[in-house]
Amino acid sequence: MSETTFKHMRDLPSTHLLGTGTPMCAGCGGLQAIHQVYDVLGKNTVFVNAAGCMTLLSVYPFTPFRGSWLYTAMASAPAGAQGIRDALDILIEQKKIDKSEDLQVVVLTGDGSAYGMGLSATSSAMDRNLDFIYICYDNEGYGNTGQQYSDATPHGARTSTSTGPGGHPGYKKDLFSIWTAHKPAYVATVIGAEPLDLARKIEKARDIKGPRMIISLSPCPTGWDFDPSLTAEVGKLAVRSGIWPLKEYENGKVTHTKKPGKKRPPVEEYLKLQGRYRHLFEPERDEQLLAEIQARVDVYWAEVEG
Ligand SMILES: Cc1ncc(C[n+]2csc(CCOP(=O)(O)OP(=O)(O)O)c2C)c(N)n1
Ligand code: SF4
Ligand SMILES: [Mg+2]
C-alpha cells in the first residue's frame, strides 16, 4: 500500500484537488455520481447532508448547487429530511407557497451513515413512508476521516483500521436487501461510470412518491489507492466483473438492469487496480482469499441467473 493512501484530503498536495477552492479529491467517484444526480433533479432540490466527504462541497453560506443544503450529524439526516418535508407540506397547506414551488428532499450521506450510524433513522423514515430520496455514495469506508472501515467495507480490503495480512475480516453489509425488506417505493444501485443507467433510475425515483433509496458505489482514489485517472475504469470493472450488481426494486420485485453475462472478467481485474488489495497479489498471490472473493460473486450471479 502506498504511503499516500490514507492521508486526509486536507493533507494532499494541491495537484490532487479540484481547482477553485473545492477541497475534493480529483477523480472522486462520489462526486461524479452526484453531478449526474443533480443534472436530473435540478435546482428545486434540498440536500440534507450527513457529515462526510461531500460536506466539504458546501462552505457556509455557499453551496455549488442552486438549491438548498442542510448539514446534519451523521445519524440524523433522515430526521432532518422529515423536518423539511413537514415544513414544505405546511407551507403548501397554508397556501404560503404554491404546489409548483414544492422541493424534492434529498438525503445525501456516505456509507458510514447509511450502513451504520444512520440506519436506525433511515429505517424509521421508511416506516413512516417519508416522501424523500436517499442517496448513499458508498466509498466503502469513513473516507473523510482517513478511510477507517465501515459496515460497507468489503472482505479483504485494507483500510486504515484493517491493516492485518488479510485486510478487513468482516463482510460488506447487504444494504440493498435491508432497505428492500422495508418495502419502500423504490430502491436502486447505481454507479457514476454507468451514467445512462444512473440517469434512468434517478428520473424514475424523481417521479415516484414515498421513500426512494439509492446506493451509488463510489470509487475513491484516495481511500482505495488508485490513480484518479482510473475512476471510470474501476467503476466499469465493478459492474462488468459482477462485484457491483446494478439493480432496482419496485412493487416487491428486484430487476437487474445490466447483467454482466457469462463472460464476466475475473474479479481480480477489478481488485488489482486498487492498492487496498495489493496484499492479495504481492509479495505473492493469496489464492485462497482471491478464490473466496470470486466465489461469492459467482454464487450471487448463479442465483440471479437460476
Ligand atoms: C457521531 C459522529 N462520529 C464521528 C464523526 C466524525 N466524522 C465526520 S465525517 C466521518 C466519516 C463519515 O464516513 P461516511 O459516512 O462513509 O462518509 P465519507 O467520509 O466516506 O464521505 C466521520 C467519522 C462525526 N461527524 N459524527
Ligand atoms: S476521500 Fe474519496 S470519497 Fe472522499 S472526496 Fe476523496 S475521492 Fe471522494
Ligand atoms: Mg464513506
3D architecture notes:
The chain has 306 residues and is α/β, with parallel strands linked by helices. Helices cover 33% and strands 15% of the residues. The protein is built from 10 helices and 8 strands. Helix 6 links the parallel strand 5 and strand 6. Helix 1 crosses helix 6. The N terminus is likely disordered. Thiamine diphosphate (TPP) binds next to strand 3 and helix 3.
Descriptors:
single chain; 306 residues; alpha/beta; globular; disordered N terminus; binds thiamine diphosphate; binds iron/sulfur cluster; binds magnesium ion
Helix-strand blueprint:
Elements: H1 29-41, E1 45-50, E2 68-72, H2 77-93, E3 104-110, H3 111-117, H4 119-127, E4 132-138, H5 175-180, E5 186-191, H6 195-206, E6 211-217, H7 221-224, H8 231-240, E7 247-250, E8 253-256, H9 267-271, H10 287-305
Parallel strand pairs: 1-2, 1-3, 3-4, 4-6, 5-6
Antiparallel strand pairs: 5-7, 7-8
Helix pairs in contact: 1-6
Magnesium ion binds at residues 110-112, 139, 141-143, 150.
Bound molecules: thiamine diphosphate, iron/sulfur cluster, magnesium ion
Structural class: alpha/beta
Give the helix level as a range of percent.
25-40%
Strand content: 15-25%
Radius of gyration from the CA trace?
A: 19 Å
- Number-wise, the strands total 8
**In order across it, which strands form the biggest sheet?**
2-1-3-4-6-5-7-8
Major β-sheet profile: 8 strands, mixed
The gross shape turns out to be: globular
User: What is the straight-line distance between the termini?
Assistant: 39 Å
Number of H- or I-type helical stretches: 10
How would you describe the oligomerization state of the chains in this entry?
single chain
Q: Uncertain regions: pLDDT < 50 for 5+ in a row? A: 1-21
Return the average pLDDT rounded to an integer: 93
